[in-house]
Design the sequence.
């Protein structure tokens, strides 16, 4: 479902999905607030550039730090195809070693999406991304939701795994789990607050999308995106989402 959307006054045609619509809405509000500025953006664990490339297309200067050379190669190709190679820098490195990779207090917007649940220790990563932000700069952080993982496993008949996940302090389901941890809104807020960031907004991403039969999700994509957006900020729906998106700021 391609739609014309605006990022800080720049029109783009983009496909909004339950995975991306709520996050883009939050980012668009920040970019609108700073319309006319060329922002310095850092995407930690930015992978193949699903967010980095559209941000560069909107005129911003984006550095992607990622541990995977393959992901960075795909990012570089994607940026070249979009004609924004000069505004996207790919840096191979570890999120918790950002200090040596990017200048401190030099970034307007940091993205850290789907990374804190896989790194060895999330606290130094969050401290590093907070240190990279200028005072007044913003962080967009996406983490795996804990409640959705418990419900999802139970609904698929894996009651033992659901029970293990619910009981585990980190919200992981043993050594075969692909994620090391999952979050609820309070836990994720505490992590960002401990690094000196002020959490301004929390949204649920994919409140419903993973629960619906494919025929419904595929058959009514626009209605699903609208419903996801309507429920995203409203507990208890928010707290049952597959992912939680936190928008935070380094105090000015
Ligand atoms: C699930 S992907 C998310 C990609 C992108 N942020 C997105 O939301 O589409 C996780 C990314 O984090 C990267 N990654 C994992 N651990 C990392 C670390 N310690 N430092 C930097 N990047 C890391 C992986 O290589 C991968 O590209």
Sequence:
């Amino acid at each position: 479902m391609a739609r014309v959307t605006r990022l800080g006054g720049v029109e783009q045609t983009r496909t909004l999905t339950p995975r991306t619509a709520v996050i883009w809405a939050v980012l668009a509000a920040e970019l609108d607030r700073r319309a006319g500025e060329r922002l310095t953006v850092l995407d930690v664990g930015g992978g193949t550039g699903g967010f980095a490339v559209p941000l560069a297309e909107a005129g911003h200067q984006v550095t992607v730090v990622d541990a995977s050379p393959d992901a960075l190669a795909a990012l570089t190709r994607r940026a070249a195809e979009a004609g924004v190679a000069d505004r996207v820098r790919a840096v191979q490195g570890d999120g918790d070693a950002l200090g040596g990779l990017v200048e401190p207090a030099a970034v307007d917007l940091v993205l850290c999406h789907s990374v804190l649940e896989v790194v060895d220790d999330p606290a130094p990563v969050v401290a590093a991304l907070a240190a990279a932000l200028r005072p007044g700069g913003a962080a967009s952080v996406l983490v795996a939701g804990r409640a959705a993982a418990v419900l999802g496993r139970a609904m698929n008949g894996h009651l033992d795994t659901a029970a293990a996940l619910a009981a585990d302090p980190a919200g992981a389901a043993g050594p075969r789990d692909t994620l090391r941890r999952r979050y609820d809104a309070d836990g994720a807020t505490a992590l960002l607050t401990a690094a000196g960031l002020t959490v301004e907004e929390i949204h649920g991403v994919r409140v419903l999308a993973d629960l619906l039969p494919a025929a419904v999700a595929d058959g009514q994509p626009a209605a699903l995106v609208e419903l996801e957006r309507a429920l995203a900020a409203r507990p208890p729906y928010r707290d049952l989402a597959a992912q939680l998106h936190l928008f935070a700021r380094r105090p000015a």
